[in-house]
Amino acid sequence: MKLIKNKHELIRGDLHRIVIETVEESFDHVDPYTAIINNVKLTDRGISVKGVNIDVGGKIHVVGFGKASKRMAMTINDILGDKIEGGIVITPNEVGRIGSIILVRGDHPIPGENTVKASKQLIEYLERVENNDTLLVLVSGGGSALFEIPEDDVSLNDIGFVTKELMNRGADIYELNIVRKRLSKVKGGKMLRYVSAKNIVSLIISDVVGDKIDTIASGPTAPDETSFLDAYMILKRYGIWDKVPNSIRTIIDKGIKGEISDTPKASESIFSKVMNIIVASNEILLEALAEKLSKRGFKPMILTSMLEGEAREVGKVLASIIKSIDKYSKPVARPVALLAGGETVVTVLGKGVGGRNQELCLSLSISLKTIENYLALCMGSDGIDGISPAAGAIVDENVLKEATQMELNPIEFLENNDSFTFFSKLGRAIFTDYTGTNVNDIFVAIIV
């Protein structure tokens, strides 16, 4: 896969080439086409999904939303062809048709009027699906923004405000979604209230740490065990309960009092006809990286696929492991490839331009100022890192030397949350287009 647009600028030696080529090769394993083609098969009586046979008595319909939704729809269409009755798939930037599936455009990363219009089209389509039919739901990261219909008296601006405030204070995706589910007519399993199909199969590309199905795209087809009280406690904990619009306080207050219904729970009968299946994830990508780096002569060690925390602090922790390898050959001796994945957060205090992967890489490189013979790559698998145009960054023992030559103070850039400016000046920011998938972030470090 040709993934990184500026790799010729980034490759400054054999290690750079090895890491970049390995990352590009490994992304094939979480490509939506590969993920779907390996898990969905056409059978004599219907379809098989991850080895489970589904008897399709009626028609097959396809709906979807997320950054990978177009490519997922293309694959399903290649497999099932004219057996698909129709469908609606919401994408970040595409309109048109794939067979009988209509592509419509939503808004990302903040839901806007395009998202609401597209989501209402999708719901109207779902309401026409008959009770003997089969519904395939294609879910991927970005679905929270692309598929949204606010609850009555709640506006998109209200949702956008609370989302931004929580993100700027370091809230993670679980906390964000607990709040957003209370403000939506379709999140947290609520989409199922519009569906009467016999079979509902969600094919999911996970962009959530730990692959929590109720969190990916805010869990439109998954039971939700959180509550209005949980949402209230999150807003209080981050100090914004009194700052959010009155519409949000009103709906949460009513929910706590039991005056309005909450999200569907696992005990409800509607989930007896639902299958939620993860077809691509961060763990799959890390395993592919480990296998390929092993063949290149490195000892791979997958530290975790559940990396979380403040990006700059996580950078220090990862740096400490590299220091331990450098000094004590523990937990493993050189040559080693350290691998990790997940999703960190950035508490924004400065006015710069950056993202969690670049901030992690900047913090790591500062912590490794005395270490040689290492290279590290931090990258968002969707090609997006924060508010910057980059996907991530690549660093080695020469980063701080280059910064000194250009009279750049890395600590000042870190404190100003300006990691993109720092790395772009050094020619070390990673640029991709939309990768077509989204399975969280990856960290790759080679120590030789």
Automatic annotation (TrEMBL):
| Annotated GO CC locations | cytoplasm
Please name the GO terms that the record assigns under molecular function: ATP binding; glycerate kinase activity
Q: Matching Gene3D superfamilies, A to Z?
A: Glycerate kinase, MOFRL-like N-terminal domain, MOFRL domain
Residues of the MOFRL-associated domain: 21-252
Q: Which InterPro entries match?
A: GK-like_C_sf (IPR037035), GK_N_sf (IPR038614), MOFRL (IPR007835), MOFRL_assoc_dom (IPR025286), MOFRL_protein (IPR039760)
Q: Which PANTHER family match?
A: GLYCERATE KINASE
Name under which the protein is recorded = Glycerate kinase
Write the lineage as a comma-separated list: Archaea, Thermoproteota, Thermoprotei, Desulfurococcales, Desulfurococcaceae
